[in-house]
Amino acid sequence: MAPSLTSRRVLLPLTVLVILCAHAHAVRFFSHSLPSSDLLSDGLPEPSSSDEKGSLIRLPTASSFRFLRAAESKCEQTYGFLPCTTTVLGNLFLIIVYGFLMYTAATYLSSGSELLLEILGPGIVGGLFLPILGALPDAMLILVSGLSGSKETAQDQVSVGMGLLAGSTVLLLTIIWGTCVIVGKCDLVNSVALDSVDTRGYSLTGSGVSTDIWTSYAARIMIISVLPFLIVQLPQLLHSSSGRHLAVLIALIVSLLLLASYCFYQVFQPWIQRRKLEYVRHKHVILGLLRHLKQRALGRLLKENGEPDREIIRKLFTTIDENSDGNLTHGELRALVVGIQFEEVDLDHDDAVKRIMNDFDTSRNELVDEEEFVNGVCRWLDRARGSRPASGDAGPHTVKFLSNFHNETKREHDLLDVSGQNEEVSEGVEKSKWTTVKALLFLLLGTVIAAAFADPLVDAVDNFSDATSIPAFFISFIALPLATNSSEAVSAIIFASRDKRQTASLTFSEIYGAVTMNNVLCLSVFLALVYVRGLTWDFSSEVLVILVVCIVMGVLGSFRTCFPLWTAIIAILLYPFTLALVYVLDYVFGWS
């Protein structure tokens, strides 16, 4: 319905009144907020009261517009279009969004490097590309933290890069290291962890993990990698200000030499990849036996609730025990193994029997009795089910997890097998071409995302620091490593919870390797940035934190192969200790 004439007569004066009130309010706002040079008198005499302004008319001068722009805009949009804000919640939201994008970039880079491993083998990819690609997101963030803006701006923002460098190292060697000990714990007997035997609960001395000697070598390499930190700190230790720039250059050269040496060591000594391959072959034995037993039991290895059916497994033991003496000998196990298909993996029967005997024969009498057989099969079933989340019906006829376990194991074997020559040449070539394209796309996409959003993330951290008055170092120390290392952390924790000593050795070796790359690659980027831009090296407390954690955990890993639970507590407590140490040194003793 159209408004009546009376309504129009009422609405028009009200509208005019609202506009006039708004204008009067605007005049009063501008009179209090704008420079007096931009205000013009309306001809009326000025009031005598000092707290009351006269009636002034605002003229739209250029200086007025500059004032308004300065009052309204306090942050710069990255690339001219990405959002920015000066509020606490706004910057926290941006840190979460950009942090997730950096996590996505790290995931793509990891997937692409694994696919390259399938094509080129661990000699080059596992030793050279994988470590560098794994540290690329951290290196990108460190680079952009001091690359943009003036020298003063770079000096202010470079603390974000140092926070990330220190935070990644400390997170890996404290929280992640300690968590891997806790989730991978088993009973310790004579300083050796008994695989898959966990009867002592959370005993601080009787429960833990053990590793091999190669893991100790990785820890020693990590200790050597802190040498550039010591070199760059020498002028501060000697209280000299003249040689700081030269010390940065020398530390940069040493860091680059250590990086090249470490990469060549990994190329020509790919023992980490060989141990991965050994572990995957062991999983193939598990898979082959379980699938064979499933066929004999008509698929009835699990109960309705998804738990192993011990009675069915006991009946299987009776059928395998040919002489009915209650024990399985090497000969009886070999007769069982002969009929097992190991899914295109080159495993001889004697090797498979040895692996089964080592896992099942807990009494070490070279015989597997009924109870050992039942417990061993149940343990392997639990391990196979743990390879993928359960889905659907877990009843007696459902053994879908065996197929999942097979797919995962076969993929890991393909990624790690450097001797495999595929007889199906044409199919292998096509698969290789597609895998190469897919790997390159993953690597390209991960690199582009990391390069594009590293700078906005650093800006968001810096703005959040300004809004909350929290030093940027502490924000980047805590938040940024979660974005760049979370995928690696989850993989390490899951892997440590599997085959105990074998996987514990591999997990800790990879943690030490990641820290080594932080200490050589990421530090090289940071030192190059400081040297090229002529920035001041003033990070004594941060360097001390890195040295303390690397040396303490490195010495612990170098001279021990047994890690009871009390070592996990020490490692985890080092994390809050490092934060407190930096705060005390910088804000109580004034180191920074």
From TrEMBL:
InterPro entries linked to this entry: CaH_exchang, EF-hand-dom_pair, EF_Hand_1_Ca_BS, EF_hand_dom, NaCa_Exmemb
Superkingdom, taxonomy of origin: Eukaryota
Domain EF-hand: 308-343
UniProt topology in membrane: Multi-pass membrane protein
GO BP: any one term: intracellular calcium ion homeostasis
Secretion signal span: 1-26
Pfam families for the chain: EF-hand_7, Na_Ca_ex
PROSITE patterns reported in the protein's UniProt record: EF_HAND_1 (PS00018), EF_HAND_2 (PS50222)
An annotated Gene Ontology molecular function: calcium:proton antiporter activity
Keywords carried by this UniProt record: Antiport, Calcium, Ion transport, Membrane, Signal, Transmembrane, Transmembrane helix, Transport
SUPFAM superfamilies: EF-hand (SSF47473)
Membrane-spanning ranges: 88-109, 116-144, 164-184, 246-268, 439-458, 470-496, 508-531, 537-556, 563-585
CC terms in the record's Gene Ontology section: endomembrane system; membrane
Compartment(s) of residence: Endomembrane system
PANTHER family tied to this protein: SODIUM_CALCIUM EXCHANGER MEMBRANE REGION DOMAIN-CONTAINING PROTEIN, VACUOLAR CALCIUM ION TRANSPORTER
Record-given protein name: EF-hand domain-containing protein
Protein's organism: Arachis hypogaea (Peanut)
